[in-house]
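Field log, afternoon session.

UNIT: design team B
ACTIVITY: writing a sequence onto a fixed backbone
BACKBONE:
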């Protein structure tokens, strides 16, 4: 099991406007996939801009344990010498993913489709997260679950088949992790593996598989084409390639919202990925009246990126449709923060997936709002936040439950409330945004121990 870092309590204090420019860390989703597809490719993959947070480094360590040769050349610059599909070796030790839900679930797909045996584990938060919805389709593809903790949780041991069985699988929830695990297992299947999703989720796996040489067909599915049917031709020869990782929109969300709610602020966030399946937060904030301007749109690493100029804004409450959730699932905690400053109520519909993240994020967000005097309620899977059209009280201490996004969201809250806001632990912020504290301080944010 992972070593647990000592808690790092932090507080954010309202102060001066935020000013300056920043580039958020590399996108976590693409960083994970660059390591994984580098492992499964033949030749040397070169990666620029890799997010060197703990989550991605755990995936890199797992790729090394499964046979890849990895070298760090400098900040964010890595090479991965892969072993190709079918060339993985049994790891000598447990694959410890720490807090990395994405890394662990995607790598289960890799192992589940290959003739290797590996044991997966993680920290207390990862051990509490459900893996059964990943294991169910994998067992249909020939994966054996040798051992598992209660409820299909880690620690668990998987043994993959000599060849995976191609299947057609409709995901039970809008989850890019389920989809990606099935597609990655399908790489070693002698036929076509198909995933059907009723609501389109982030498509980084499909894009990167194509970049590495796989044949992937994506078609609209269901009423009005809101869903996707993704078909992968199995047993391709993946070719090593160069990957430039764009800035992570999920990390950009924190300084973006901080600038919107802190009076007098104006910042520029550089190189942010503008994939339409990742920009639900920006769409919602624009509907709320946010002053966000896209500048210098361009292509990097197969994705559209842009610089964002963000100015402090008067926000109004809106109704956020459930079908937007897959495009902003990680950003709801910080959207709830923005909603607290808006005039009127903001209703966020269909947030079931928040209950199975690093924490029960829906409950954690509600508790954090309550601790800071912000009116809200949960109705089924919907969260309603009653904004005050200005600065809410603040003054509370928020339990983060080992969740990096809860920690960062409520520190952002404290930059503009009437009284400082504290979080019980910020140590896990390093899993996705290692430079969060110095970045926010450089903009003028007052965050400290």
């Amino acid at each position: 099991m992972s070593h647990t870092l000592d808690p790092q309590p932090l507080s954010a204090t309202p102060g001066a406007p935020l000013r300056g420019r920043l580039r958020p860390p590399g996108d976590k989703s693409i960083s994970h996939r660059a390591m994984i597809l580098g492992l499964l490719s033949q030749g040397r993959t070169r990666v620029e801009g890799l997010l060197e947070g703990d989550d991605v480094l755990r995936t890199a360590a797992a790729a090394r344990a499964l046979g890849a040769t990895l070298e760090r050349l400098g900040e964010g610059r890595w090479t991965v010498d892969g072993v190709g599909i079918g060339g993985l070796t049994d790891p000598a030790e447990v694959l410890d993913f720490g807090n990395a839900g994405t890394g662990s679930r995607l790598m289960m797909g890799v192992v589940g489709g290959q003739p290797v045996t590996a044991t997966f584990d993680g920290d207390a938060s990862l051990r509490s997260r459900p893996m059964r919805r990943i294991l169910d389709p994998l067992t249909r593809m020939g994966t054996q679950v040798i051992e598992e903790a209660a409820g299909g949780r880690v620690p668990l041991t998987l043994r993959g088949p000599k060849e995976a069985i191609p299947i057609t699988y409709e995901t039970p929830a809008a989850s890019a992790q389920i989809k990606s695990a099935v597609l990655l297992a399908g790489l070693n299947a002698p036929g076509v593996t198909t995933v059907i999703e009723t609501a389109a989720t982030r498509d980084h796996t499909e894009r990167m598989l194509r970049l590495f040489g796989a044949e992937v067909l994506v078609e609209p599915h269901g009423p009005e084409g809101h869903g996707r049917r993704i078909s992968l031709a199995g047993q391709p020869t993946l070719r090593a390639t160069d990957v430039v990782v764009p800035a992570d929109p999920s990390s950009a969300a924190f300084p973006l919202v901080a600038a919107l709610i802190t009076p007098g602020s104006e910042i520029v966030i550089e190189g942010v990925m503008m994939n339409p399946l990742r920009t639900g937060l920006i769409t919602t904030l624009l509907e709320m009246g946010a002053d966000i301007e896209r500048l210098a749109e361009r292509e990097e690493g197969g994705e559209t990126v842009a610089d964002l100029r963000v100015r402090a804004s008067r926000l109004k409450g809106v109704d956020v449709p459930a079908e937007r959730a897959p495009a902003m699932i990680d950003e709801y905690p910080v959207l709830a923060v923005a909603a607290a400053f808006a005039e009127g109520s903001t209703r966020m519909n269909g947030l079931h997936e928040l209950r199975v993240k690093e924490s029960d994020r829906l409950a954690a967000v509600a508790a954090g709002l309550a601790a800071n005097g912000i009116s809200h309620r949960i109705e089924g899977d919907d969260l309603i936040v009653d904004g005050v059209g200005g600065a809410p009280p603040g003054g509370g201490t928020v339990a983060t439950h080992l969740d990096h996004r809860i920690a960062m969201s409520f520190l952002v809250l404290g930059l503009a409330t009437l009284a400082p806001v504290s979080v019980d632990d910020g140590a896990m912020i390093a899993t996705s945004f290692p430079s969060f504290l110095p970045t926010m301080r450089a903009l003028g944010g007052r965050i400290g121990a």
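LOG NOTE: The two ends are 28 Å apart (CA to CA).
NEXT ACTIVITY: expression trials, pending approval
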